Amino acid sequence: MDTTLTQAATASNDEAFAQRRTLWHWHFYAGLFVMPLLVVLAITGTLYCFQSQIEPLLYGSRMIVADTGAPRLSSDALLARAAAEPRDAVATLAQVETDRTRSAEFVFRLSSGDSESVYVNPYTGAVLGMLNVEHRLMKQIRNLHRGLMLGKTGELVMELADCWTFVMIGTGIALWWPGKTRAGGVWLPRLSLTGRAWWRDMHKVGGVWLAIGAIFFVLSGLPWSGS
């Protein structure tokens, strides 16, 4: 009788170990695929959030003007000045800032299919310069964020990474799931541990706290996906 119970317990333990090992493999390979791309998304997304602060530093001669205290020209007058620069172009966007130290920006669609920004001094009407929209640093960062600058193929890779993040999170939570209620090693890392055990605790506990934010992070990006 005892032998039968022992064999049953051993078989149950072996099955549980096999299931846990399978989960670990899925978690590991999903993370191996997803994490480098999530780092790219995080860095490029953060940079894009500061577009209005970064671009004036890069293109100050076009975007920054001196506040002379004079009245600004009307939007129609500024557009007329801007439209005189690019040939065979159609205006698609006008951005006249309330900040008196910023120039007015007008975006035109060229016959080649590219877009070009024309910057106009709102006080004098002088054209300060032009900038190809596709060559702007923030446009490149956006393309990197959305598709690794690889076009449709890159977009599909990033969308797959978004979806596989759910696999990484789901298997991670399954591996974390506590067998009994306790705080140490579940909700709080056990700082008394050392070596690999300490790193495992930090990864496990940190991962479960970050899971909610990561799920929101992925879900908020999927509506922008193409596929």
Features:
227 residues; alpha+beta; 7 helices; 59% helix
Largest β sheet strand count, sense and barrel closure? 4 strands, antiparallel
Oligomerization state: single chain
**Which secondary-structure class do the elements indicate?**
alpha+beta
Mean pLDDT: 86
Shape: elongated
Name the helicity range.
55-70%
Q: In what range is the share of β-strand residues?
A: 5-15%
Helices and strands, in order, run as HHHHEEEEHHH
Unreliable segments of 5+ consecutive residues: none
Can you give a write-up of this model?
With 227 residues, the chain is α+β, with helices and mostly antiparallel strands. It folds into two domains: 129 residues, no CATH class; 76 residues, Nuclear Transport Factor 2, Chain: A, CATH 3.10.450. The chain is 59% helix and 11% strand. The protein has seven helices and four strands; from the N terminus they run ααααββββααα. A four-stranded antiparallel β-sheet has the order 1-2-3-4. α1 crosses α6. It is elongated, with a radius of gyration of 28 Å. The chain starts with a helix and ends in a 6-residue tail after the last helix. The model has no long low-confidence stretch (mean pLDDT 86).
